[in-house]
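Q&A log
Question type: sequence-to-structure
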Amino acid sequence: MFAALIISQALTAAPVLPAGWLKACATGEATHCEVASVTTEDLFWLNVAVNHMIKPKADVGGEVESWRVFPAEGDCSDYTLSKRAVLLAWGVDPKRLTIELGEHYRVGQWRRHMNLRVVTPSGDLILDNIQDQPYAPAARPFPWRAIASQPSAGPLWTTPED
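Response status: OK
Response body:
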């Protein structure tokens, strides 16, 4: 859907969807955000756009964790919530979106991490700020220990199967 609009920008690693439009959709300030159906290609471009719009910045020890939508700088929770906000604005059923909290093994240690799991007709996909390409849960590019998963349909955090 958005590939023709953004292919040239993607090749330069610039934000590939208009930042103002994504933010306006996520905050409810824009109209015409809903799409008939979200494709795997749309998920790819959304993941790329948000991953390049937010400058990576880890929370500093001792700081209170803050979860924000479209901050200038942020950590994995901010990327996750920004992607979720856009998908909800596009009209995706919240029951198809699950926030996953876990630990991944990178750079010689286990680190807390959050990502967004999206249920699609062809199987679940993970939208992650660590890489631009969405991937299936079984194809995680790093070892992962699930801690909790919060389905949008319920208030409880559970241990996911994958």
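Response note: Residues 75 and 105 are 16 Å apart (CA to CA).
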